[in-house]
Amino acid sequence: MVSLSLINQALNANEQQAYKRLTRVLTHEVANSITPLASLAQTAVTLLPDDLTFTDSEDKDDLHLALTTLSTRSQHLSEFIKSFHQISALPAPNLQQIELSSLIKRVVSLFHGQAKDDSVNLLVKVQDSCLVMADAAQIEQVIINIVNNALFALKRRDIKTSTNK
Question: pLDDT exceeding 90 applies to what percent of the chain?
Answer without folding.
Answer: 4
